[in-house]
Amino acid sequence: MRKLLIIFLAVFIVSCEDFQELNTNVKSPTEVPGATLFSNAQKNLADQIASINVNINNFNLWAQYITETTYTDESNFNIVNRAVPDNAWSVFYKDVLTDLAEAERILAAEEFVTADDIAAQKNRIAIIDILRTYTYYRMVSLWGDIPYTEALNIDNLLPKYDDALTIYQSLLSNLDADIAALNTGAGSFSGGSDIIYDGNVGAWKKFANSLKVKIAITLADVPSEANAVKTAIEDAVASGVFTSNADNALFTYLDASPNTNPLWVSLVASGRSDYVATNTLGDIMNTLNDPRRPFYYKDLDTNGDVIGGVYGASNAYPNFSHLSGLLEDPTFPATLLDYSEVEFYLAEAVERGYNVGGTAEDHYNNAITASIEYWGGSAADATAYLAQPEVAYTTATGTWQEKIGTQAWIAFFNRGFEGWTEYRRLDYPNLPMPVDAVTDSYAVRYTYPINEQTLNGANYTSAASAVGGDKLTTKLFWDVN
């Protein structure tokens, strides 16, 4: 009996090993799924973009869409107390870029035979690089010189900082390669791993072209880049950019923790009352009779006007308007890039003499209409708004920079980084200084992390000197106005 049992166990073990081998996909490593890492990188990036947690993201404050109530440090540009740059730096490098790099490594190691599988693999690699390019764009536009060519190398704990202009040029070159590599007739990510576009390669191609416009327009006032910017934007438009709100790059959240929008965490789950509307945006929207007021804010006055607090002051929460119920929805999406934004850039491109089709007024109108409709307004609302002399492109006050800059800033509501960057690029609208600012002029960049100063001192010192001083008020090289 004992002998028979030993034989049975031996056969059973061998059989299990055979079945395990049969059930193992030898062409695709499974220890760390690359698609899962890609999903995780998307969520970490979206969280950083969507959050109004003052520990990592101060841009809805700095764009003056909201201001604080009791604790006003960040509204007044004090980002040292909470180590805000360190926290944001860590999210970008550790939680987004590292996951993207590991996802690419794993997915590139997969071995396929069929042409369809190989084409889908190439698409996945290109899409990862597009999202990486977006992430680096956000970082270089926030700090200036940053680690790039030597970043993410575990064997190099002291990476050098690359020149910001060279990084922008590299990002545009990367997008050219990615756009060329994308095969819209093949698959990419599947099974819900691509939360933004669900593996739609055509949508990613439009996103890449639209991102190319976004990056290029940032350099439009840099004399040495004039021809390259014009060519990049014209090529991107010819290849295909966003043409409606259906193209918007959105990361949609779920209604249960930990996958809710971080806005819900700050506005609802926390039980705190930290933010109110500002009179900076509120007064402009009231003057223009803007139909987006009830979609941006709640607790308006009896005339439907926003009641805004003074930016940077200690504002009593009950006395002012607050972020709308839309933003308190746990599933409210984070926007990486949208049609309205692209249309504002194209209006600017026309004014700069680029061949992108249409008139500046056409693109301006398209941008405003898209924004109003996205937030819940109607086409009739947009038509009435645009008919006002104070809004109409031909009669609104100021230069094209003022017209486009002001309306883009309004449309970029809840996308503080874009609103703040529009102010940095075009100098409109005129954002007032916070009442208790720790600087003598407006903050236009994050300072480098304290950890970098401590642990990567030589490279930090070189970078600080190269950008013109590691200060909140140091303008990046493209901010020439």
Beta fraction of the residues? under 5%
The ordered H/E elements are HHHEHHHHHEHEHHEEEHHHHHHH
How helical, in percent, are the residues? 40-55%
Instruction: List segments where confidence is low: pLDDT < 50 over at least 5 consecutive residues.
Output: 1-23, 26-30
CATH class of the domain at 34-242 and 440-467: Mainly Alpha
Number of helices, counting only DSSP H or I runs of 4 residues or more: 18
Q: Architecture of the domain at 34-242 and 440-467, according to CATH?
A: Alpha Horseshoe
Question: Total number of β-strand segments?
Answer: 6
Helical/strand content category = mainly alpha
CATH topology of the domain at 34-242 and 440-467: Serine Threonine Protein Phosphatase 5, Tetratricopeptide repeat
The span between the termini is 91 Å
Shape: globular
